[in-house]
């Protein structure tokens, strides 16, 4: 044994002793936490008992009532405190349980300026201190832990809530600990050693995403710990860890603002439900609750339950015409967003569209009356105030109408026809007594009228008197005066036809996706409702699939929130044309001083050959650096007929299975995926077809249409039928890129007849052909 090896052995043995000690202390703390939970439980029970007895006793006399009330309040407070300490102990126990498995993953030695001694700290998933309040483990999110991710050895600064601090870092050590034993450890002079990263990345994929807390990279750490920006825009290559980084960021924010921020004030917009499933374990693993998760379609769909939202461009089932694409560009542009705002303000003066509020089949408040009220307020009343004032006035008028309504014939008839059962339900108590039958009649009539008028009341409160469809159509008609349509390549005629089409859609209770956000936004501006001031942080993943309009609408909907937007402009598969200008458009919505753009260029997901291949698919793409991990070159096979392709597919799947690689077969459309599933079933090969985003990801081979594969990753990917007939338009390049970049270890591309021109420009050295 060399001297060096001996030294390493001794160091590891010393670290193991330290680890054993910490584990023993964690064990003791667990026992203690369990005891205090039991204690709190017992206390609560006995308090409850005592409290019930006392309250029971005191109910006898009036004089003790106040006392009783006070005592109830006190008791409740005590119960609450017990409950809090119980919850706290339960939370602590949870952390301890997690720490008991892997107490920490890193050690840092540093010297703080002006301090006599060198300090050593250990970093883990949560913090832990012994009875003497001596910190044995620091939470990875604690300010000091930042230097583990951020710097090399020597002078390193980090942010604390009180400002910047600098320390001299002397040692950085990483551990892989399993079952209480140190499996391996490395000292590193770099940020996070590649050796550690290689071990982690070499692992197989699973149906659930994992946390990256032990190997967060420096540039990812910047995203995770940013607290200054109102808009944090992350452009990151496929597999650069954008999604991983934001989940860590949520955990960080919940820690940093503990007590002020709850998981319910953080909302994340993700590409689809499947993806939500995929990431759902990450935060709980880190000991935090999941934030609110939604897709944009859910966000807008819940507001329009009675309408069918259609998206002609979705899922690549139909091709769009050039005019349709141009019109779509108009409706998704920021200029269109501004136009809605300008139009809405114009409504303060004229052109509001109202609907009659009906009662018993007849107009109760006519639309003319409503317009008269709406425009009766002076010019200081802006949209939301004006609407509030109108509502208030309408409610007042409604209340004034109760008395006259009571005298109407229909009421007398209704009272006469009341069944016994109905009568009892209207009385305040069973067999209520009245001074005279006239009094009884008045009582019942008032009840009936108030009840019936409830519908009108509800109509007023829910803005049923606004003719939102007519309003939106009127706005569309005004668009040529608000926007230079020619600059989008749209003629006046095209536009008029478009307006007629929207009108026809409305008749069928349909609305196209491009119209939904402007439609809702206009309504929100008119009513001043719907914005959610409670949400503090909004995350938008895969921002490249949002239109500038949608991004702007989200910003308007969460006015108090700070935004983190992540995306890869190389992967814009739904919005292609606008994505390149997306960043510049979105930036206009935020204060430039408070905007930060971060680029993640290194791709961690795939092996070097796969990253190099996928990178070559792009033209004028964003920068991508590979991570040095070995693997096979992607393999391309072209066959003349489908049967031969099927055969190849089966063989590839069997090979992957043998190598224990989980495969995803990615096809362009749902139809193709279904056909493949049918074929594999007949061939006796088991695979799960992912038909919709509401399904769960299954273990084993899956077949998935491209648009559902967003954000996911698999050991092996088979790109099905990458032929010239299937992928030809230049704007499908990003789609092809997205498909190929889902592969971690192996990529196989199968094509019939002729390979898609989008793939054929890749240098031949980057793949093999068979
Ligand atoms: N610092 C890291 N340490 C370990 N693994 C990492 C790190 N960063 C990223 N990874 C891994 O790289 C893979 C890709 O990460 P992620 O899905 O977050 O990337 P992404 O940028 O969102 O990709 P895409 O845009 O293609 O969906 C994941 O398996 C993730 O665990």
From TrEMBL:
It comes from the Bacteria. The lineage of its organism: Bacteria, Bacillati, Bacillota, Bacilli, Lactobacillales. SUPFAM superfamilies: P-loop containing nucleoside triphosphate hydrolases. ATP binds at residues 236-243. This is RNA polymerase recycling motor HelD. PROSITE patterns: UVRD_HELICASE_ATP_BIND (PS51198). Keywords: ATP-binding, Helicase, Hydrolase, Nucleotide-binding. The keyword Hydrolase applies. InterPro entries: DNA_helicase_UvrD/REP, HelD_bacillota, P-loop_NTPase, UvrD-like_ATP-bd, UvrD-like_helicase_C. Residues 215-607 form the UvrD-like helicase ATP-binding domain. The gene is helD.
